Amino acid sequence: VFQKWVNREISNFDYLIQLNTMAGRTYNDLAQYPVFPWILRDYTSEELDLNNPAVFRDLSKPIGVVNEKNAKAVKEKYNFEDPLGMIDKFHYGTHYSNAAGVMHYLIRVEPFTTLHIQLQSGRFDCADRQFHSIPATWQALMDNPNDVKELIPEFFYFPEFLENQNGFNLGQLQISKEVVNDVVLPKWAHSPEDFIYKHRKALESEYVSAHLHEWIDLIFGYKQRGPAAVEALNVFY
Fold first, then answer.
1. Residues 115, 118, 122, 127: is their CA dihedral positive or negative?
2. Does the domain formed by 1-42+54-232 have CATH 2.40.30.10?
3. How far is Cα 203 from Cα 200, in angstroms, rounded to an integer?
């Protein structure tokens, strides 16, 4: 598979799906759901220019420190001494992929809607914590080193999860009073289908093809644990 990918006989999307499968990740287990990278950082331009390296996220860094500003806090957390010596050192107390994160992204589609409601003791979580906007989700990641969610494969092929087709009442945001309905898209996407099309194109772009292995090292490769993980600020609780 690796050789086929290197020879560009299979797409980046297919290679990531196969890597996830080999790593034991599966759609049948929310705690081991397939994980995909955030690949863009431009969610505000009117047009998305895939020939400009500046629109892409730095794939060599864990999502928690893509914004340099967060690196200091992340290092401090790692250097904190547990007085009882019970807890291994870590950079992040949460994980880039977990069941709650999957339900967060897929809240508008069943069976995830029902699972989310069960997780939240019988009702929707408060609107401000819902997945309501792609640009706002990215901004929150940049502002908050404690939020380290990567993406799920649906961001590259499944426009329906961005629409509230079932008309669920997801509440309204506290400050703006905006009603949470369909997911707010980047300016450069004119519809959920257009977002998926462009996002998938970005995944298969020259830039991502050249750098994807750096992210794979963090998630599936040698930077997952040990000294390489410490150096890469990639140690999870």
1. negative
2. no
3. 5
